[in-house]
Write a structure and sequence with these properties.
Layout: E1 13-14, E2 18-22, E3 29-31, E4 34-43, E5 52-58, E6 63-66, E7 72-80, E8 83-87, E9 90-94, E10 98-102, E11 108-112, E12 116-124, E13 137-140, E14 147-149, E15 152-159, E16 169-176, E17 192-198, E18 200-205, E19 208-213, E20 216-220, E21 226-230, E22 236-243
Antiparallel strand pairs: 1-2, 2-20, 3-4, 4-5, 5-12, 6-11, 7-10, 7-12, 8-9, 8-11, 10-13, 14-15, 15-16, 16-22, 17-20, 17-22, 18-19, 18-21
The chain binds (2S)-amino(carbamoylamino)ethanoic acid and manganese (II) ion.
Manganese (II) ion binds next to loops.
């Protein structure tokens, strides 16, 4: 927020195929499934996305979740703090970097055991004939190795969800040392929802380089030309969603 004697301006951009939202200037919503909790709906069909992504700020003792509807799967990632995750009656703790993918057939709740920030990603699961849908998947980003990306030791990719046919989404963490970048401007049918975890840099969206930093959200719709260049002074890190492993139908 700016003082009354300062000018107002913003890096926020909303275009038909992409959007950039700095956290400043993004007022919270109240959601019935997260009573009293500050929630920000970052991506939704209203924006043009085929998925929903939310930032959830829990105070200690607050919580939420959803009952299984057999249709929507949920990825949950603890950005900071700690929660108790209960899926179909079984409870386990998740700390910073902890994450899970809850299948559409399961109920889940998350309760803040400290003040916590979560990223939620909700998507209609696309079943594949002959392929058994996955069950609950739980992981810890700290234990997922960072693979060298396309020969660049300064760009590492962590694949949080197995890249196997039962899974129809990827959730990855990209880490770029200062001065490193994606090797080209890529353009693809898959969408992204991107939460910037650390650092700062320049993101190329459509035909323009834009400054981005920690706590920014970017939606990239299908076929948006995109690239990234990390500036500094610390390594840049972002968590992103991508729809994968399914046919694209006419
Ligand atoms: O997986 C990806 O498509 C990734 N290289 N895109 C991105 O980081 N914008
Ligand atoms: Mn991409």
């Amino acid at each position: 927020m700016r003082a009354q004697n300062q000018l107002l301006h913003s890096r926020a951009r909303v275009r038909p195929r992409y959007a950039l939202f700095p956290l400043e200037g993004y007022p919270p919503s109240r959601l019935p499934t997260w009573p009293g909790v500050e929630a920000r709906v970052l991506a939704s069909p209203a924006l043009g996305a085929a998925f929903v992504e939310e930032l959830i700020d829990l105070k200690k003792g607050q919580g939420g979740g959803t009952e299984a509807d057999g249709r929507v799967e949920t990825f949950l990632h603890v950005i900071s703090g700690s929660i108790e995750l209960t899926v179909d009656g079984r409870t386990q703790p998740l700390g910073p970097g902890g994450y899970c993918l809850v299948p559409p057939a399961a109920d889940y709740t998350a309760a803040g055991t400290s003040d916590s920030r979560l990223i939620l990603l909700k998507k209609v699961y696309e079943p594949l004939p002959g392929v058994t849908p996955p069950g609950l998947f739980v992981g810890d980003a700290a234990k997922v190795p960072g693979e060298v990306y396309m020969g660049d030791q300064g760009a590492r990719l962590q694949t949080l969800i197995p890249d196997e046919l039962p899974y129809d989404l990827a959730m990855n963490i990209f880490t770029f040392e200062t001065g490193h970048s994606l090797p080209y401007v890529e353009t693809h049918v898959m969408e992204h929802g991107l939460w910037f975890l650390q650092g700062k840099g320049l993101y190329y969206l459509d035909d323009t380089w834009m400054e981005v930093e920690k706590d920014d959200f970017i939606w990239m719709g299908p076929y948006v030309p995109q690239s990234f260049y990390a500036t500094g002074p610390v390594a840049s890190k972002y968590l992103y969603y991508k729809n994968v492993n399914r046919e694209i139908h006419p």
